[in-house]
Amino acid sequence: MNLILFTFIVLLGFTSYYFGRRKAYTIQSTNKRLTALPQFYGYYLAIWCAIPAFIIFSLWAIFEPTIVKLLILSDYSNQGYLDDELNLIYEKTKALSRGQFTGEITPFIEASAEKYLSLRSIAQSSKAVIVLSIIIASVAYAYKKISSNSRTREPVEKFLKVVLFTASLAAILTTVGIVFSLIFQTIDFFKVIPLFDFVFGTHWYPAKAFVRDSSEALDPTMYSDTFGAVPIFAGTFFIAFIAMCVAIPIGLMSGIYLAEYASVKVRQYAKPLIEILAGIPTVVYGFFAALTVGPFLKEIGNSMGLDVSAESALAAGGVMGIMIIPFISSLSDDVITSVPQSLRDGSYAMGATKSETIKKVIFPAALPGIVGSILLGVSRAIGETMIVVMASGLAANLTLNPLESTSTITAQIVVILIGDQAFGDPKTQAAFALGMSLFLVTLCLNIVALRVVKKYREKYE
Amino acid sequence: MKKNGVKMIKINSKNVDVFYGKKQALFNINLDIEENQVTALIGPSGCGKSTFLRCLNRMNDVIDICRVKGQIIINDFDINDKSCDVVRLREKIGMVFQKPNPFPKTIYENISYGPTIHGMAQSKNEMDEIVETSLKKAALWEEVKDRLDEPGTGLSGGQQQRLCIARAISVKPEVILMDEPCSALDPIATAQIEELIDELKKDHTIIIVTHSMAQAARVSQNTGFFHLGELIEHGSTDKIFKNPENKKTQDYITGRFG
Questions:
Q1: Contacts of the segment A208-215: beta carbons below 8 A, 24+ positions apart
Q2: Is A412 in contact with A204 (CB distance < 8 Å)?
Q3: Which residues pair with B151 in a beta bridge?
Q4: Residue A204: DSSP 8-state
Q5: What integer pLDDT is reported at residue B7 of this predicted model?
Q6: What is the domain partition of chain A in residue ranges?
Q7: What is the rounded average pLDDT of the residues A59-87?
Q8: Do residues A237 and A409 make contact, with C-beta atoms less than 8 angstroms apart?
Q9: What is the residue-wise DSSP string for B110-177?
Q10: What are phi and psi of A103, to 5 degrees?
Q11: Hey, how many other C-beta atoms are within 10 angstroms of the C-beta on A257?
């Protein structure tokens, strides 16, 4: 029903565009100069169609459920039900009307469900009638109003600006929403677990919070030694460190090759090929790490008499490093390419060779940009989840041995949030606290990276 | 400068052709450059004068699609020969560019760059001395002697260009190529550079590409006029400006085209 209505409105929009433009042409044919191009007249009418439709649809979406609920529950109003019970009755009614109700069906509920359905259908048809009539009225009004000297270009431009603004607002509001959803849960978490224990505790064992007997009272002391985040922070930075040990040299060298040495033809093919690496889903990297690299390292380690865990920090970090290579190589390639040619010329003219020029002039000039790209790589390494979950194990060991398994913030969030969980439980809230700290860390890194890159830009522009 | 009454030829170019891909940019250039003189190359934009200048220190090597044919003989040696060591060549032939291009390093490091590459200083003292003489020769020493460790990019445009000249002369080149060195500078800075050029020709052979006829007349002893990739006329600046043989040269110099 809604879909048909929507299609109809879109068609109406096109029609009003057509009519607006036609009217403009008619005016033009009487040798009058228009204030705007004919298509602006068309867009103007289409907007007169779109805005009322949008307003009515949103009003309906906001008020229809409330009104329907009021009408349904008015039947029960004088029977002494509590609010919660009324809500339950309403939910049952809705479920029954969808045919999804499993339970004892009382005649009351059945009657309500029927009433609900009829109310809904009345609402639907009245919405259709109201929307269409208002649209037609507004378009007709605007159609009559437009003339050779009416302003159509300005409203159209303004409308576009508002649409674009709304789009960017959506992204910003989402970010704010995410931060808020993290903040409140995090605060709840720290009400039970002292911040000090979280930041400096060296035991991370959230499963302990899970195995407690449900009959036990919620006693804060029982969580001591459960949510100490040091091991997973250490694990996160350790794996990120291993990843950067792989990604920085390889990425940087391939970036330098692409920017300075590769011929146009090689670059044309090599750059997209390297960037394909960035397009591989991380879950694929994950099983590459878990099923290929991990066992391979274990075998090599065993042949050398080392005890290597199949899920080692080395495997996860190494593969993560490979994943980050294209970021660093591509970004540093861009940065190096944007070092002015005049600096290269100056250096070559002094008799410097290519490698001397790169080492002494280009690299220092590009350094801020390269540092920026590395920091972006680091924040990706810290935020990476799938590879770690699959290849590095889930037990939070506090270790600096790359051959042992360790765990990261992101992996722990996954561990906590898969399966059943109860809201309000410190274990669940721990995930939010972790998410919040992860967010803060990557935020800081990104801010520093952007600052550095900006500083670099100012230097040459 | 004359030796036994005969002017010494520093650079001798024979039948030089330059191609960018399939497009020919220079046609059969034969031009002799006299030692310890200033030679100006003039001509309308795109006539090939900068291309010719870049042939002289093989800077065209940097451009992938560029090919140079013919002989350019400096000190009895063809620099287009395979056996030519470009690093040594560019030590002998310095270059100053249109836009000042100091390295994003300190003033000191900008000057010490060349001597370091060519291993010219054995000690810190020696290097200090090279830096000081170069800056003095470029008439920049007094302005920067107290801030040698500040970035070269922080200087004014004219100072930056003099820094680039100091950088070029730090390796004691025999020839200095200047590609419109004043086109990005104001008249005062231009006058300083021109004065400097006059000073430098005692020790160096200078070739300068310029768009300013007045500048060519002021600083040069010899002038070559390029047009559409050909060397139309060359000779002493006096003769070219007062009594040109070719109609095109006359038209260009009097501002009738260009």
A1: A209/A425, A209/A426, A209/A427, A209/A430, A210/A427
A2: yes
A3: B106
A4: B
A5: 72
A6: 2-148, 223-460
A7: 83
A8: no
A9: HHHHHHHHTT--SSHHHHHHHHHHHHHHTT-HHHHTT-TTSBGGGS-HHHHHHHHHHHHHTT--SEEE
A10: 160, -170
A11: 15
How far, CA to CA in Å, does A66 sit from each of A63, A69, A121, A350, A427? 5, 5, 15, 79, 35
Contacts of A453 (CB under 8 A, 6+ apart): A368, A369, A372
Confidence of residue A428 (pLDDT cuts 50, 70, 90): confident
State the alpha helices, DSSP H only, in chain B: 49-55, 86-92, 107-117, 124-137, 141-144, 157-169, 187-200, 213-219, 237-242, 247-253
Distance of alpha carbon A280 from alpha carbon A320, whole angstroms: 12
Asked if the C-beta of B90 comes within 8 angstroms of chain A's C-beta atoms, the answer is yes
Q: Does B211 touch chain A (CB under 8 A)?
A: no
Structural domains of chain B ordered from first start = 2-103+176-253 (3.40.50.300)
Q: Is A249 at the interface with chain B, CB within 8 A?
A: no
**Subunit contact B59:A344, Cβ cutoff 8 A:** no
Q: Name the A residues in 303-342 with CB < 8 Å from any B CB.
A: 340, 342
Residues B136, B140, B143, B148, CA torsion sign: negative
Higher pLDDT, B98 or A110: B98
A382 with A445: CB under 8 angstroms?
Answer: yes
Torsion angle of alpha carbons A74, A78, A81, A87, nearest 10°? 10
Q: How far is B165 from chain A (nearest CA, A)?
A: 11
Residue B222, token pair as written in the block: 């010899």
Distance CA B120, CA B117 (A): 8
Phi, psi of A387, deg, nearest 5: -60, -45
Class of domain A223-460: mainly alpha
C-alpha A177/C-alpha A179 separation (Å) is 5
Share of chain A above pLDDT 70, in %: 93
pLDDT greater than 70 at residue A380: yes
Name the pLDDT band for B17 (thresholds 50, 70, 90).
Answer: very high
Contact assessment for residue B26 and residue B16, using Cβ atoms and an 8 Å cutoff: yes
- Tell me how far apart the alpha carbons of residues B128 and B121 are, in angstroms, rounded to a whole number: 9
Quick one: which of A249, A269, A271 has its CA closest to A374?
Answer: A249
